[in-house]
Design goal:
By secondary structure, the protein is mainly α. The chain contains six helices and three strands; from the N terminus they run αβααββααα. The chain is flat and about 60 Å long. The mean pLDDT is 93.
Amino acid sequence: MTSESMVTMHIGEVAARTELSLRSLRHWEEVGLLTPSGRTEGGFRLYTEDDVEKILVIRRMKPLGFSLDEMKAVMADLAVLRSATSDSSDREAARAHLGEIHADAHERRARLARQLDMADEFISLLEGQTR
């Protein structure tokens, strides 16, 4: 680990940096999606830069409607690929699953783009009626 990844932050700083609520971060820990790297003697959560990067991955998945279980699976696959001790069959399985998730994410994004287009059309319609 680099000295930068060893620097720790409290939950409030992480929430501000990631634009997430304290409640979301605590919930993700409760459901096993994210585990802070440590705790203070008083029990306060401590996060590293690596933790923040994981949080940002999760935050990016949320608008696409991935379930908690799907997010857990992605995070597990990413951990396998980042680990120097993962064997080749585990790495290949993780890559295959992430490939499926990649295709699914593209489809979900396309649906969101269509919804956004419809919202823009509605806003334009309203603008035309209110002038």
